Amino acid sequence: MQVGRLSGHRDRKDEWSEHVLLGEFRHSLDSKGRVFLPSRWREELGDVVVITQGLDRCLFLLAKPRFEELAERFDRLSLENPDARAYTRIFFSKASEESLDGQGRITIPANLRSQAGLGKELVLAGVSRRAEIWDRSLYDTYQGNVQEQYEEIAGKLQL
């Protein structure tokens, strides 16, 4: 459960050459819709993050520079493609820029909490260059289902 830098080689013994978010953290949402970001992620994510609708009923949490990289990729999609238009509209219209407070918390907007079915108990999962925010019971159910297929999925992906 740490932040590191990922690559085939290391610059120093304890650093990797590209940023990556690792780990699974269980936190509670407070009454104002705030959650603590893991201290290991704060330097990596910076003081301003973007939260948007993810996939599988989670939210995506991205460092602002990573969100900007994705925006450039979306800009290359064809406007004539209805799937590209639909996905882009949702991805960006649901996005919210949030600042960390002095205690390392971010506010998850009510519309996104509702969209993802977030209750009080959450899981923040590092997923390479993004994090995901899940309702704890949804996450546990999802993980239970996917864990059984882990090796089969790896074979399909040919990792």
Describe the structure.
With 159 residues, the protein is of the alpha+beta class. The protein has a single domain (23-157), classed as Chemotaxis protein chec (3-Layer(aba) Sandwich), CATH 3.40.1550.20. Helices cover 36% and strands 31% of the residues. The chain has helices spanning 39-45, 64-75, 82-93, 110-115, 136-147, 150-157, and strands spanning 3-5, 10-12, 15-16, 19-21, 24-28, 34-36, 48-53, 59-63, 96-99, 105-107, 121-127, 130-135. The two termini are 22 Å apart.
Q: What labels would you give this structure?
A:
159 residues; alpha+beta; Chemotaxis protein chec; 6-stranded antiparallel β-sheet; two-stranded antiparallel sheet; 12 strands
What is the CA-based Rg, rounded? Answer: 16 Å
**Structural class, judged by helices and strands?**
alpha+beta
Largest sheet: 6 strands, antiparallel
The CATH topology name reads: Chemotaxis protein chec
Helix content: 25-40%
How much is the average pLDDT? Answer: 88
Poorly predicted parts:
1-12
Write the layout of secondary structure elements.
Blueprint: E1 3-5, E2 10-12, E3 15-16, E4 19-21, E5 24-28, E6 34-36, H1 39-45, E7 48-53, E8 59-63, H2 64-75, H3 82-93, E9 96-99, E10 105-107, H4 110-115, E11 121-127, E12 130-135, H5 136-147, H6 150-157
Antiparallel strand pairs: 1-4, 2-3, 5-11, 6-10, 7-8, 7-9, 8-12, 11-12
